[in-house]
Amino acid sequence: MIRFERVSKRYPPGLDALSDISCEVAEHDMALVCGHSGAGKSTLLKLIAGIEKPSGGALLIGGQNLAALPRSALPFLRRRIGMVFQDQKLLFDRTVFDNVMLPLSIVGFPRRDAAQRVRAALDKVGLASREKAMPVMLSGGEQQRLAIARAVVNRPSLLLADEPTAHLDAQTAADVARIFHEFHHVGVTVLIATYATELFPAARRLQLDHGRLLS
Amino acid sequence: MRVWLSQHQDAAQLALRRLAAAPVNGLLSLLAIGIALALPAGGQMLLANASHLSGTTSAVPQISIFMAAKAERQAATEIGERLGRHAGVKQVLFVPREETLERMKSGPGLREVIEALPANPFPDAFVVSVADDSLAAMEQLAVEFRQWPKIEHVQLDSAWVRRLDALLKLGRTTVMLLAALLGTGLIAISFSIIRMQVLTHRAEIEVSRLLGATNSFIQRPFLYFGVLLGLGGGVLAWLLVAAATLWLRAPLAELARLYDLTLALQTLGARDSALLLGFAAGLGWLGAMISMRQHMQQY
């Protein structure tokens, strides 16, 4: 599903965020990207989502080399990937329902079916009763679950999450981790950048240290 | 196709909601655009009415030939035949002196004066339509006719219509120039407003892009916003012109009556109205498009 072949990422003026990364994440796999702050976890996820471009090497997703992907094809790649961002990137001027509706609007999903999909996604993360609420009215855990609902509403084959349990209390973090497990069990490939490895004991680990892959 | 239409419908609705979300700002923007467009639109309305005025009078250049007062009918008949044979003459209308007298008698306040005269003071006359209506050809014909016997006076008609036509041409050029200048202003207004909109909706643009939105998807509501601005401004301009028409109709009709003309000031016709709205919407879209092209590179 995802293959890194000697991938590196260098930011100007010469900071190596990732160096010589080679690894593979198989389809239906669940993997954790671990490492200290600044190890390159977020950069790795951003490369997969096409938010950043590798400085060297080849990154293949579903056999497609991202380096060779034209800029115009990027949106279509991103539609196949669900991403939960570290800062959630919720839109605070629209309701919970409309936040989750956005990815479906982008792909032009038929409106009536889209509403059903949105409700199903909200139900899955336990926010069915909050669809009319504004994000600012939600707790931190609920906002995180909303971000997950938005990431999965398109039913992506690959789900990326950047620190999804950060700043959450233990119980809420466990609830969020359970949601990722559920998606993994239905066949979604899940890649999570996290410190909280204890929440995902069965997941494979990709340990990063100063931009290098240790295991 | 259905998806495409649905996305356009959503974008248009979103643009409308954004416009309604800041009613005061929206109204002031529309007012600025409306006033800017009302000037060339009003000019066009006046030109259309002036064109109509010149169209209702004889815009076909003619030459009036007046026989000498003492010339006999036989002389007039000969001149008529000669005119009929002339290659430069397209059509001849004979106006007998009696007919002129009757017509003058029917004029207000003239009957008593004319009846007091011992004899008919009017000459026989001809109204000649010419084959070549260029000013040079007509002047040459007039010079030739003046040399014919028993002809007292030759007058080139429609001179004022020609002057009016020349003024209309100048007016049209001025309106075009004004439309071009104020149209550029409209593009600039639309550009600035869309720039502000892009800054306001920066988060939405960023998130949409991360979720797989194409440039078209992101730009669409902003382009509709530009179109709505232009269209709204166009409607406002139309209303301003219509109000000005109603306001000016009575005093202008009164003025026209003094010159023995009939003038009922008409507001912009269907074609001009459609042109105004299309022009306004198009320029609003263009301003938005330029703004998006410039600002999308940042996201």
Give structural notes.
Chain A has helices spanning 41-48, 74-79, 96-107, 111-124, 140-152, 170-185; strands spanning 2-11, 15-25, 30-34, 56-61, 64-65, 81-84, 158-162, 189-193, 204-209, 212-213. With 215 residues, chain A is of the alpha/beta class. Chain A has a domain at 92-154. In chain A, the strands form two sheets. Chain A has a six-stranded mixed beta sheet with strand order 6-7-8-3-9-10, sandwiched between helices. A four-stranded antiparallel beta sheet of chain A has the order 2-1-4-5, covered by helices on one side. In chain A, α3 packs parallel to α5. The longest helix of chain A is centred in the C-terminal third of the chain and has 16 residues, at 170-185. Chain A is globular, with a radius of gyration of 17 Å. Chain A starts with a strand and ends with a strand. The mean pLDDT of chain A is 92. Chain B is an alpha+beta fold. Chain B folds into two domains: 7-57 and 162-298, no CATH class; 62-157, 2-Layer Sandwich (Alpha-Beta Plaits), CATH 3.30.70.3040. Chain B has ten helices and four strands; from the N terminus they run ααβαβααβαβαααα. Chain B has helices at residues 2-21, 23-56, 73-85, 97-105, 111-115, 135-146, 159-200, 202-210, 215-258, 270-295; strands at residues 62-67, 89-95, 125-130, 151-156. Chain B has a four-stranded antiparallel beta sheet with strand order 2-3-1-4. The longest helix of chain B is centred in the last third of the chain and has 44 residues, at 215-258. The model of chain B has no long low-confidence stretch (mean pLDDT 87). The A-B interface holds A 49, 51, 72, 75-79, 83, 85, 89-93, 102-103, 105-108, 110-111, 150 and B 2-4, 6-7, 10, 203-204, 206-214, 217.
